[in-house]
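In this section we walk through a basic example: taking a raw amino acid sequence and producing a predicted 3D structure, encoded as discrete structure tokens. The instruction is simple. Fold the sequence below.
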Amino acid sequence: MHYHRRPRWALKENLVTSEDVFLSRRAVLAGMGVSAGLLASGQSARAAMTPEDAFSPTPALNPAFADGGRAVTEEAITSQYNNFYEFGSSKRIAREAQKLTTDDWVIEVDGMVSTPFSIGIEDLIKRVNIEERIVRHRCVEAWSMVVPWIGFPMAELVALANPTTDAKYIRFETFMDTDISREQRASWYPWPYVEGFTMAEATNELAFMVVGAYGKVLHRQFGAPLRVHMPWKYGFKSIKSIVKVSFTDQQPLGFWEELQAKEYGFWANVNPEVAHPRWSQATEQPLAGGERIPTLPFNGYAAEVAHLYDGMDAQFGDRLYR
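The resulting token sequence is shown next.
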């Protein structure tokens, strides 16, 4: 596997926990038989990852990315505060999400591709370039965090799929299993969870497929074993536990867009000047605590992605940001 030079968005090293502290902390936790996610959480060991779940091979610990000077949000916080509606509508679904079984996970790739295929998650990881990125996450609910994700550029998934020139969108679909996901038994939700992006968005350098975090294989509550992270978009676009990737010439209808298109649209770009119909997006509350902070256009990544939407305001208006 190969590791890439840091792009423009790499943070200063003094904003990240040093490698010796990080590794020694991990070693102590391993010796105790618990993960960092247990600290100060009150959760049982059954709801946490084990030492054997360390990501292997482990990407080198990288400096944090330039996101305005915010430090990484502690794993003890992020691993216990999650949106994953398949396992419940509250944020405290970490224990329930442990019902998800990721053994022998297979992703189906179909649609407008040269040859449809299926690939196991382990084989997929072997065929891409794994790296760590420490980037922002901004929820449409107006809270935010900074997470050290491990994964690979979405563009590599696109290249692996080899879509035809007619493909204009990439569509992702989450697992469907009512035996382990009690919320998927609810008929008022449009299961399974679906999200999509344009090909230009999917091949942008920031679009990321996530397989790990905090030096470990991805927690189940984070969307194991494969999820999306689009740091310039609101978090509901970051679909979890992906089982199907399709290439199409039709704009995908996302889960939340299907539920309430006036509040959750296809584009969902972060814009502090465009309010959600029920609350302001001008500021955000970091999960780590402290005062609310101003939200930045495109969540601080305008230099990388704003050009994708040049001239589209006249056509889509506020919908670009919902």
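Looking at the output, two observations stand out. Confidence is low (pLDDT under 50) at residues 1-49. The domain at 13-309 is CATH 3.90.420.10 (Sulfite Oxidase; Chain A, domain 2). In the next section we compare this with other chains.
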